[in-house]
């Protein structure tokens, strides 16, 4: 039996498929987006009428392998990852992720898992290794089987709401003024964030807080942390929600890391904890207000958090948590290629004075470090920005944690001083990679982080991102013209 066959026939799936059919009929849903995630975190897939729900659940749909690389060509004109001669992947829906779109209730979405074509000569029906979402599920299962821990994650998705010209082009300005935590500026975007809140809640998010951040039009809206895969799905869904709200308000939902210099960039700090035990619960409030699949509103709660302090030092994570931090510290350079995955990401690190994480150290609530214990029981990785792919990041963190726990890696003592003061006092501190090219080189040397992108996934990622870096190096920019156009004679 192939991986595809096992996925289709997994226990309980038939019941879920029937439950979705009942929900389709109850809600009057006519169309479904069957979607997966590309190498850059883009949502891709197909739309299929609900008449074909059962058949698609059994047989799947076909799409070119190159969709996992956005079907982009490199600077030499070659398709990244897979050529036009490659077979087609098979997308099999995961019925537990079915959810009605609140902005058009005749449409729903469901995430899919991707497999190699049934007729491939090599590994027919095997997991498609360039499916980053499928990889994350496998890595999370392997980690739990080996260590007994579940990785739970919460993200802080900063992004900016930008204005448009009459022709639809960007004005280059944010909707509001760059006043951090200012309620009046938050209020100016109230119709926007309340619509985001409405849609997010309807799609099962447990929204917990929000604020105006440091840059023009920059908001951060947060939801409850959860299992690493569920959280990645919610972040992808949140981006889709913001794009829809932007269409409704004639704005641009900007997830570009650094569209403006002189103000803060958009980060996506990733908070982590390791748990044993716990169980799923239903978010009853959302379930009562919006009719949809129970599973959409499922959260995990309870259990034992192994990042909580287990000594007399209330600031120091538990022994297991410290080993996990040690693993992240060891692989920070390579991990930066995933968390800061674009050329523009490094504008965030070079524009000084905005608390961007450039130092490869850790501390307790110390924002001058690339890593920090943000509160007892959770660990924050700060070198992650709004453009990152959360499925690749989740897999990378699991591999770091595995290395740290397996090999008892000591992260060293946490730094309580400002990193600038520590350096002035003589401390030798390493910096994170400060360009995409440097980060890609560090990734190429790190077999642990590369294992988070098995086989074709690393080939696609490296090809795509190395081409992006080479295109940048070969491009003449406005800075070039401003600096060199009339420098001689």
TrEMBL record:
Organism field: Candidatus Pelagibacter giovannonii
Entry-linked SUPFAM superfamilies: Glutamine synthetase, N-terminal domain, Glutamine synthetase/guanido kinase
Entry protein name: Glutamine synthetase
Family, similarity comment: Belongs to the glutamine synthetase family.
Pfam families, per database record: Gln-synt_C
Cofactor(s) needed by this chain: Mg(2+)
Source species taxonomy: Bacteria, Pseudomonadati, Pseudomonadota, Alphaproteobacteria, Candidatus Pelagibacterales
Domain GS catalytic: 132-489
GO biological process: glutamine biosynthetic process
GO molecular function, one term: glutamine synthetase activity
Domain of life according to the entry: Bacteria
Record keywords: Ligase
């Amino acid at each position: 039996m192939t991986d595809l066959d096992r996925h289709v026939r997994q226990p309980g799936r038939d019941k879920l498929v029937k439950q979705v059919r009942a929900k389709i009929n109850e809600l009057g849903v006519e169309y479904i987006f069957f979607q997966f995630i590309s190498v850059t975190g883009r949502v891709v897939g197909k739309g299929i009428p609900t008449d074909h729900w059962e058949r698609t659940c059994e047989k799947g749909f076909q799409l070119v392998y190159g969709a996992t690389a956005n079907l982009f060509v490199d600077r030499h004109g070659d398709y990244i990852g897979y050529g036009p001669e490659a077979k087609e992947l098979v997308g099999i829906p995961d019925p537990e992720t079915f959810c009605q779109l609140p902005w058009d209730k005749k449409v729903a979405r469901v995430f899919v898992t991707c497999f190699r074509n049934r007729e491939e000569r090599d590994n027919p029906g095997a997991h498609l290794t360039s499916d980053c979402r499928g990889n994350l599920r496998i890595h999370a299962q392997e980690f739990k089987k080996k260590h007994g821990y579940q990785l739970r994650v919460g993200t802080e998705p900063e992004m900016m709401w930008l204005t448009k010209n009459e022709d639809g082009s960007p004005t280059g300005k944010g909707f509001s003024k760059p006043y951090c935590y200012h309620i009046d500026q938050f209020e100016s975007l109230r119709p926007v964030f309340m619509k985001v809140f409405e849609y997010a809640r309807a799609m099962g998010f447990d929204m917990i807080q929000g604020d105006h951040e440091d840059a023009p039009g920059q908001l951060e809206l947060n939801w409850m942390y959860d299992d690493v895969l569920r959280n990645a799905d919610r972040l992808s869904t949140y981006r889709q929600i913001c794009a829809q709200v932007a269409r409704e308000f004639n704005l641009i939902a900007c997830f570009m890391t650094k569209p403006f210099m002189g103000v803060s960039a958009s980060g996506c700090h990733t908070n982590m904890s390791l748990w044993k035990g716990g169980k799923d619960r239903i978010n009853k409030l959302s379930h009562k207000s919006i009719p949809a699949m129970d599973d959409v509103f499922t959260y995990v709660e309870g259990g034992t958090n192994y990042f909580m302090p287990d000594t007399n030092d209330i600031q120091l994570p538990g022994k297991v948590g410290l080993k996990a931090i040690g693993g992240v510290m060891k692989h920070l350079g390579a991990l930066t290629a995933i968390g800061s995955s674009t050329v523009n990401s490094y504008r965030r690190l070079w524009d000084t004075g905005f608390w961007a994480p450039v130092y490869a150290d850790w501390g307790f609530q110390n924002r001058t470090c690339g890593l920090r214990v943000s509160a007892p029981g959770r660990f924050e990785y700060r070198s992650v920005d709004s453009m990152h792919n959360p499925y690749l990041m989740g897999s990378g963190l699991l591999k770091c944690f595995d290395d740290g726990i397996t090999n008892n890696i000591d992260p060293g003592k946490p730094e309580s001083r400002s990193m600038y003061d520590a350096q002035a006092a003589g401390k030798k501190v390493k910096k994170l990679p400060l360009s995409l090219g440097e980060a890609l080189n560090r990734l190429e040397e790190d077999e642990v982080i590369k294992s988070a992108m098995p086989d074709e996934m690393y080939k696609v990622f490296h090809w795509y991102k190395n081409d992006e870096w080479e295109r940048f190096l070969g491009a003449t920019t406005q800075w070039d013209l401003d600096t060199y156009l009339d420098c001689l004679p």
